[in-house]
Amino acid sequence: MSIEELARANVRALTPYQSARRLGGSGDVWLNANEYPLPVEFQLTQQNLNRYPECQPKQVIERYADYAGVKPEQVLVSRGADEGIELLIRAFCEPGEDAVLYCPPTYGMYSVSAEAFGVEYRTVQALEDWQLDLPAIAEKLDDVKVVFVCSPNNPTGQLINPQDLRTLLEMTRGKALVVADEAYIEFCPQATVAGWLAEYPHLVVLRTLSKAFALAGLRCGFTLASEEIINLLLKVIAPYPLSTPVADIAAQALSPQGIVQMRERVAEIKRNRQYLVSALQEVPCVERVFDSETNYVLARITASSAVFKSLWDQGIILRDQNKQPSLSGCLRISVGTREECQRVIDALREQPGLAATERV
């Protein structure tokens, strides 16, 4: 029996998530992973690397709870929010029996994680405006244990209607968890549903330090939920999910000064986003620029695959969304520095294209 044959059948058939780094490229303008464009300096203060770290570092948990407005008992820290997705599936879904549900176009790790654990994933195509199709979701909830909703949604950039989220929460009460993925919530903090946790014990909120906190390389994420859910997740998490340096830097990022600096970065990115959107709307090959509440912009572009390749060859790396449902012709552009935004605009102006007929 070959090594391939020894592997589980669902793993042999699995197509891994195509992260920005897996897709590669050799550019100098990286606008494909929704990262903060500049490095942020931190100093390591913990030198006791001969000892294992805490499973759930107390200072990190307390500072994030204070920041998010929840109790420390409602917070779990993990290796990015991606590990939070896996923990929820592992703790609540029986392989071969239960299912997860999500609404494409959206983040690709929901299906990859489900497949990896042998759990069925079901999809309900989002409506034309990328909002939830609630009647269609209701028809597919049998045996569903976890519903993932990304808001603001990646890659489309819009918020999910809060009343629709409430309807979904009522629809799933006593049947399934609803997981609100808030990876980009710092760019629209008024839209968080973390304040709903007391009202909906089956609500879970995912967060990360990768975006507005400028720490994508740290791999540090958070799950906010009822104490009951957190205790279940603690049963299946690895013994030492965060290394000592990660916990050290995360605690600094969540200090009062760190949060002030994060909000300054958010303000800067939002200014650059407005600059980018306004300029894109005047570029001939850009057919439409969609509203965004995040640190990226989705645009429909004439001959988008050729444009993507042309910019790639110039060292400007964007994210091609053509394979996502309803996103034909779309490219996702992370908001970089003002200079990087200008590089994208200049490169797009050189592309052949018809005058845009629809811009929002």
Summarize the SSE layout with pairings.
Layout: H1 3-6, H2 9-12, H3 20-23, E1 29-30, H4 58-68, E2 75-78, H5 80-92, E3 99-102, H6 109-116, E4 120-123, H7 134-139, E5 144-150, H8 162-172, E6 177-181, E7 203-208, E8 221-224, H9 227-234, H10 244-253, H11 256-280, E9 286-289, E10 296-301, H12 304-313, E11 316-317, E12 319-320, E13 330-334, H13 338-349
Parallel strand pairs: 1-11, 3-4, 3-5, 5-6, 6-7
Antiparallel strand pairs: 2-8, 7-8, 9-10, 10-13, 12-13
Summarize the structure.
With 360 residues, the protein is α/β, with parallel strands linked by helices.
Rg is 21 Å
Q: Helix content range of the residues, please?
A: 25-40%
Spell out the helices and strands N to C. HHHEHEHEHEHEHEEEHHHEEHEEEH
Shape: globular
Spans where pLDDT lies below 50 across 5 or more residues:
355-360
- The largest beta-sheet arranges its strands as 2-8-7-6-5-3-4
Query: Count of helices?
Result: 13
How many runs of DSSP E, i.e. beta strands?
Answer: 13
Biggest sheet features: 7 strands, mixed
Mean of pLDDT = 94
- Derived structural class: alpha/beta
Report the end-to-end length measured between terminal Cα atoms: 57 Å
How large is the share of residues in beta strands? 15-25%
